[in-house]
Specification:
The chain has four helices and seven strands. Strand 5 and strand 6 form a beta hairpin. With 201 residues, it is an alpha+beta fold. The chain is globular, with a radius of gyration of 20 Å.
């Protein structure tokens, strides 16, 4: 009888540990309220067609204005679904902050063009002011369906450094593609905003 009680206690401890670990994980699209299809494994995906690369490139140009925080169309918008749950948004923001702290900003990121990446989520963060009115924006989107394989070469054609995009690698298996712009002291309109795409191998 004592042995049975001991085993039950051990199982209870293990269960508590798992719950604690899961609490810090990024919410997957399956845990978010959405009717979108489940994301496919990247190994089963076809290469991304050239016309889709061109389409996503032109959508990536939407970030050049603070209006991009309100736009419904942005690069890979049809691969992502917006997260509304506050706890999930906080976890995603926390994960992004943690990843950015691991980046060595003094070293230029060298992206292997042959590597394949899986889009995980997108953060849109910032604010804008018109006159005396200020609006804060903190939007999160998670992957609902990676439709094609994404190589490093594909990503550099969509998010061009000459257009202001930056590539950061917190680790060998993590990639952040970011864009930021600010105009803090405008006469009528001021803004600060950032877009962060997070990908993993």
């Amino acid at each position: 009888m004592k042995q049975i009680i001991y085993i039950l206690i051990i199982l209870g401890i293990c269960s508590c540990k798992n719950k604690t670990q899961n609490a810090n994980e990024i919410p997957h699209v399956d845990s978010v309220q959405t009717n979108g299809p489940k994301a496919q494994l990247k190994d089963t995906l076809p290469p991304i067609p050239k016309e889709i690369i061109t389409k996503e490139y032109f959508k990536s140009l939407n970030v050049h204005s603070w209006h991009s925080l309100l736009k419904e169309e942005f690069a890979f918008n049809d691969w992502l679904t917006e997260v509304k749950d506050i706890d999930s948004i906080q976890k995603i923001n926390s994960h992004m902050d943690s990843s950015r702290q691991k980046v060595n900003y003094k070293r230029d990121t060298t992206l292997n063009l042959a590597d394949e990446w899986h889009l995980k989520f997108l953060l849109m963060k910032g604010w804008y002011e018109q006159g005396m009115d200020r609006t804060n924006v903190n939007k999160c989107f998670v992957s609902k369906a990676n439709k094609y394989k994404l190589s490093g070469d594909d990503l550099t054609k969509i998010f061009k450094k000459t257009k202001g995009w930056i590539f950061l690698m917190p680790s060998e298996n993590e990639l952040i593609i970011g864009y930021g712009h600010w105009y803090p002291n405008g006469n009528q309109t001021s803004w600060q905003y950032n877009h962060y795409y997070f990908l993993s191998k």
